[in-house]
Amino acid sequence: MGFSNELRSRAAPIWEREQTHSFVTGIGDGSLSLDKFRYYMRQDYVFLIEFCRAIALGVTKAPHMTDMGWFATLIHETLNSEMALHVSFCADFGITEEELLATEPSPTTWAYTRHMINTAHQGSAGEVASVILPCSWGYCEIGQKLYGEGLPANQPLYGRWIEAYNAPEFQQLADWLRGFVDRHAETAGPAELAAMERAFMVSSQYEYMFWDAAWRMEGWPVGI
Ligand SMILES: Cc1ncc(CO)c(N)n1
């Protein structure tokens, strides 16, 4: 069993909470309110930009050129494909690009992106990969699960969101990232393995918190 599978089983209770959160099941059956989904899309726009900054550190830190290329592909897919899709989805939901650009990170988005970026700055390429793995792999599982349960008939826009995360290109990138974590772990010492595990577990917690913050439409205590 590779290291990524070990991480996945250690994080199983968190991933289970994610996949059964009312926000996620509400996308699946179309019952989620549009207001909550709009809030989520705006926060996710902010998240994806910072996510790309973390991946960029993977390009810099990966020891071999082939892996640098894969980190670069992951940035390209996220920054160009996923973001373009995101902006076009948002337009369909009545959110303008100006609104996206003006979105301020919520406390949870702020904390999650700081965790990713700090870890990516301070850690090895293995830690960069481990801190972003719950994002790619987690969304793959959610995309596959919701797709398998059937698209919501009453909410075709949520159906498009599900299809995007069920896409083979998205799955392929998550598979490469898992493979990279597995290979990196083979030569890593105990301290680095512990740091990779910590990075993965904390990101898994924040993935759950991100859905929950969107469900609550979380804001800062004092509006400014
Ligand atoms: C919060 C979050 N995690 C992961 C992904 C997948 O890219 C995303 N779009 N948003």
Give a verbal description of the structure:
The termini are far apart. 82% of the residues lie in helices and 0% in strands. By secondary structure, the protein is mainly alpha-helical. It contains 11 helices and no strands. It has helices spanning 3-10, 12-19, 22-29, 34-61, 65-92, 97-101, 107-122, 125-148, 156-166, 168-187, 190-216. Helix 4 (34-61) runs antiparallel to helix 11 (190-216) and helix 7 packs antiparallel against helix 11. The structure holds 4-amino-5-hydroxymethyl-2-methylpyrimidine. 4-amino-5-hydroxymethyl-2-methylpyrimidine binds at residues 44, 47-48, 135, 139, 207, 210.
CATH second-level architecture:
Up-down Bundle
Q: Number of helical segments? A: 11
* CATH fold field value: Heme Oxygenase, Chain A
Q: Give, in order, the helices and strands.
A: HHHHHHHHHHH
Supply Rg. Answer: 17 Å
Task: Provide the β-strand percentage band.
Answer: under 5%
From the helix content, strand content and strand pairing, which structural class follows? Answer: mainly alpha
Helix content: over 70%
DSSP strand count: 0
Distance between the termini: 50 Å
Question: CATH superfamily, please?
Answer: Heme oxygenase-like
Q: What are the low-pLDDT stretches, counting only 5+ consecutive residues below 50?
A: none
Present as ligands are: 4-amino-5-hydroxymethyl-2-methylpyrimidine
Mean pLDDT: 96
Top CATH class: Mainly Alpha
- Large-scale geometry: globular
* Biggest beta sheet summary: none
Whole-number count of domains: 1
